[in-house]
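Please go through the protein record below and explain what the tokens say about the fold. Record follows.
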Amino acid sequence: MVDITRPWVVDNELSQRWPVYTRANVGEVSSTAATPLFWTMIGGPPAEREWKQALVEFGAFDLDEFRSDTIDIQGLVHGYVYLNLSNLRTFGARMPGATPDLMDRTYLGDREAPAYVPHPDDETPEYTERILATVQRVLSEAGRPDVEEHRLLAEKLRGERPDYASMSDDDLVAYERLVMNEHYPVFIRTHLRMVYEGSIVAGALDQALAGFDEPGLAVRLMSGLGNIASAAPNEAMWTLGRMVNTSPVLSAAFEAGVGDLDDRLRASSHSDAVAFVAAFDDFLYRFGSRSTQEWEANAKTWEAFPAIPLGMIGRMRLQDDDKNPSVQGERLRGEREALLGRVRSDLVDQPEALAGLEALLKSVAVYSPAREQSKTNTIRVLHEARLPITELGRRYAARGVFEHADDITMLREDELDAFVKDPASFADVIAERWEWWKALSELEPPFILEAGKVPPVETWPKRADAALSVASPGDVLTGLSACAGTATGRARVILDPEDATDLEPGEILVAPWTDPGWTPIFTSAAAVVVNVGSSMSHAAIVSRELGIPCVLAVRDATKLIQDGTLLTVDGAAGTVTVG
């Protein structure tokens, strides 16, 4: 029996300067214990270096405020990723118009945390001046050419992908490091900075519309913007689904199940199957890097697991034509313009307020697409670094060194060279770490913790034991408005996109988190309810692009709501009523 009371292989020392940490916001992208390869190759120190620099470039911190030799902004405790809440509070103290309390409400909702304890360095005028300069820059920008440049660079890297099968084991490790050291840093730093800059725009729009006292107004004015990178796969899948519907051969193939569908289609010489495979290969070329838990080292990407997108296409093809993402986009743009006309009319006697609103809406049109494109760029580059490691894992599984190709994720990145030289010497290490990782992943980590006051891991409850009372008829669950609109239908609780084939037309998707690997399922749902998320999360932006009523941050929705429960979702009010 493995001893889980000791620190996980890659746990880090928590900060004393910023001692309070939370699972908020990171729990949706890292729901299980982190693998050693993820933390040492992708998250952890590699992300921390660029995160610190992004905050410095934003103007909120100086580099010498952080410990140079360890991690401050993140935390890893018994394998679980945490976000430093105290650091966010300092950010709130320095940000004009914000407060530490506002940061708590933004990230924690109604959950309680240890009281904010001011630090002498928290409120310093020089930081406020720098942040104001950033705010002014962000709100005056007419575009983000850097993000477009990165899109082209990511496409170039994909187009120049080497033949991994012909590379030696040492060359595969070297190529991973080439991508992660020479390409990845600028992409992840831009994306992290974009998250903060995008929040400026969303917050400013909320503030500008506060006088209307109309719930969901800001959300509706951010809908139907177009050119959202994380919504593009939905449109491509819709087209593929229509191809299936017009072909009896393809329809029969899908109705036989998606488990081995990719193999069956590729083995077929029928012209419809050949055409579909060609179109699907183009889809995988453009969007194959997408997955759930997109940052993990062993993410189940669409390219590696084609049954996942094929299952989504299978659900999408059952939808009526009015669910076409392009049709929905046109409808939303029309509704947005009509709503904007009413708002303009209401502000006709307030020319200064109207001018400010018009400027903010231009910023929204820049930053919502740019934020999603920056994430897409980053994941696409990361994918090119993960693939050689995936190839390495497959080789050692084929040689009988690994039981599964994923065994490689139990290694730290700095162990790869030693492993390639003497694979057998790591057999016991990998076996022990898997047992340890699986034991940790059964636990429910504390939502909030403090440095020096971490509850003993043996007291953490098991997820399976964390039962909650099921919501009853008449109960109203509340969350954050992501996309306006109402829908009534039966709940379909889906914990993994691989189960998307269970979703029937007219059902309401209830999901645990919000990364882009989930969003194609949205088109097949009447509405979406998610455990976590914020107004600028991927689920929010995509739901607004697709016109799907969506409520985020409904705490424990996947536990409180049972399959088949009748729900009414009010996206504008942020409520889910149990029928």
User: Anything to note?
Assistant: The chain has a mean pLDDT of 92. The radius of gyration is 24 Å.
